[in-house]
């Protein structure tokens, strides 16, 4: 989920050196938020404070550099904030596998289609929206499939329908 939406946006636009910095920043956001959410969930600050310091100390300069090089990327940040609050809410309740939390994560990761597309100078926002929709549909289906498998063990008919749906999305 971290890489595919990013690659959708990058290759739909014009891949460039800015994408390397953007992906580095995106990876740091993921690593920092993982440590942060684990800290919220477990309340074990000593374990997670050091990773947050390391990732945060790399993330801040990378983010600043991105916004200096392409200030318009800042317009995407507010889209991620409410979804991150959803993640924080479920981490606090120790329910990170909740369906709504999974869907918030799917939307967060899929939004990177637009960010990477914009970073590459893309102008056909309909194409970006289609790639966003494909990403959403694929990962929502994967989330439903995995949630079902966790709760109901192996159910061949559900697996078959889910796998066929994902295959059709690839076409």
Quick summary of this structure?
This protein has 171 residues and is mainly α. The protein has one domain (4-170).
Write the layout of secondary structure elements.
Layout: H1 4-12, H2 17-42, H3 45-69, H4 77-92, H5 99-119, H6 125-152, H7 156-170
Helix pairs in contact: 1-5, 1-6, 2-3, 2-4, 4-5, 5-6, 6-7
Number of strands: 0
Portion in strands: under 5%
Q: DSSP helix count?
A: 7
Distance separating the two termini: 19 Å
Overall tally of domains: 1
Largest sheet: none
Pattern of helices and strands: HHHHHHH
Description:
It contains seven helices and no strands. It has helices spanning 4-12, 17-42, 45-69, 77-92, 99-119, 125-152, 156-170.
Index terms:
mainly alpha; 171 residues
